[in-house]
Design brief:
Blueprint (H helix, E strand, L loop, with lengths): L1 H28 L5 H13 L21 E3 L6 E7 L6 E2 L12 E5 L4 E2 L14 E3 L6 E3 L12 E3 L4 E4 L13 E3 L4 E2 L17 E3 L6 E3 L11 E3 L4 E4 L13 E3 L4 E2 L14 E3 L20 E3 L6 E3 L19 E3 L8
Parallel strand pairs: 2-4, 3-5, 4-6, 6-8, 7-9, 8-10, 9-11, 10-12, 12-14, 13-15, 14-16, 15-17, 16-18, 18-19, 20-21
Antiparallel strand pairs: 1-2
The structure holds 2-acetamido-2-deoxy-beta-D-glucopyranose (4 copies).
One 2-acetamido-2-deoxy-beta-D-glucopyranose (NAG) binds next to loops.
């Protein structure tokens, strides 16, 4: 009798062990993926004609384990869809991407045969934080609806065939940290509204390699942009909005435009580490205060500058190609002044 009682805890332990063992097995085999998300993903796969890159998207398996997607750890909803580097994927962005309501990251990148417009159903993805549709063959205009995606932190539409104007409404994105629209065929002016981004910190703006024209809006002087690349456009006039003692800009690339201003009158802030003004119509000379900057990159070549390059700071650490093709700039690293 006493020995039988003794066996009871052992038996209990045994049952507990099996209970948890089977629970574990069941949980690990239970499908975590939300059925609506799974359906949307399978529709996306079908719309792309069952591409090789989506082979792992097998309806018999849990979509939380598929390649190119990520499920949230607790809700098990699809929060990320990233398909990139595949030239066999052809067609347009399927409307079903709008049926993944918990998406925070949507990246369709380096898909040279991805064509057509920026899919309108993306407007439904109100949780999006990262939208990267770069290095594809997307065409049409940049749609206004992007400004309704209030959580967007990064918007990258670089290297496509987008045309038309930059929508004014993009300045209504309160959390935007970076906007990249470079290497498209965008025309018209930079929106005046870009001086009125409402976030705590204005975004970095990369608008290079387009056909943007007119003056850079003076409203941009209202904000302290961390970094600006407006190179290779047809911008005219002044660039005063980025200069001044109180400006915190670190990287400024305005090269290959039609800008025309007196560099002697420009006041710099110490924060500037990279300045590229090559191929413009900048005149005057290099202000002596430039010797006080911690410049890592400087290029003022192909302008209309004159006078002696101030001696000191980083200015003589650059070679002559940072300074050549000006009107009468002289002194090291160029030849001596006459
Ligand atoms: C994809 O685009 C490349 C050019 O980038 C082309 O050579 C190729 O034939 C295209 N593939 C398909 C399947 O259309
Ligand atoms: C540069 O700008 C910042 C922000 O406006 C300011 O706090 C800082 O004093 C400026 N630096 C100089 C040397 O003027
Ligand atoms: C540029 O500005 C400086 C300083 O105000 C002035 O002395 C110079 O004459 C101006 N240069 C030109 C070409 O207008
Ligand atoms: C400055 O720009 C010119 C013109 O594009 C280029 O030839 C030169 O190599 C550049 N210099 C540096 C240091 O990058």
């Amino acid at each position: 009798m006493a020995s039988d009682l003794h066996k009871l805890p052992c038996l209990l332990l045994f049952f507990f062990f099996f209970f948890f063992f089977f629970l574990f097995i069941t949980i690990s085999y239970a499908e975590l993926c939300n059925p609506n998300d799974k359906k949307a993903l399978l529709n996306i796969k079908k719309a792309f004609n069952d591409p090789y890159i989506l082979t792992s998207w097998d309806p018999q398996t849990d979509c939380c384990h598929w390649y190119c997607v990520k499920c949230d750890r607790t809700t098990h909803r699809i929060i990320s869809l990233t398909i990139f580097a595949d030239d066999r994927l052809t067609g347009q962005i399927p409307p079903e991407v709008g049926d993944l309501p918990f998406l925070q990251t949507l990246m369709l990148h380096k898909l040279p045969n991805l064509t057509g417009p920026i899919q309108p159903t993306i407007a439904k993805l109100q949780n999006l934080r990262f939208l990267d549709l770069s290095w594809n063959s997307l065409s049409g205009e940049i749609p206004d609806f992007l400004s309704t995606l209030k959580n967007l932190f990064v918007l990258t539409l670089s290297f496509n065939k987008l045309t038309g104007k930059i929508p004014n409404s993009l300045s209504q994105l309160p959390n935007l940290g970076g906007l990249r629209l470079d290497r498209n065929q965008l025309t018209g002016q930079i929106p005046d509204s870009f001086g009125y981004f409402t976030g705590e910190q204005p975004p970095s703006l990369i608008l290079s390699h387009n056909q943007l024209s007119g003056k850079i809006p003076s409203s941009l002087s209202r904000l302290n942009f961390p970094s600006i690349d407006f190179s290779r456009n047809k911008l005219e006039g002044d660039a005063f909005m980025f200069f001044g003692a109180d400006k915190m800009i670190q990287i400024l690339d305005l090269s290959r435009n039609l800008l025309e201003f007196n560099l002697s009158e420009v006041v710099f802030n110490q924060s500037l580490t990279s300045l590229d003004l090559n191929h413009n119509k900048v005149f005057g000379g290099l202000p002596p205060a430039m010797t006080e900057l911690n410049l890592q990159y400087l290029n003022v070549s192909y302008n209309r500058l004159c006078g002696q390059i101030p001696v000191g700071g980083a200015l003589q650490s650059f070679d002559l190609y940072s300074y050549f093709h000006n009107k009468c700039l002289c002194g090291a690293p160029l030849g001596p002044c006459k």
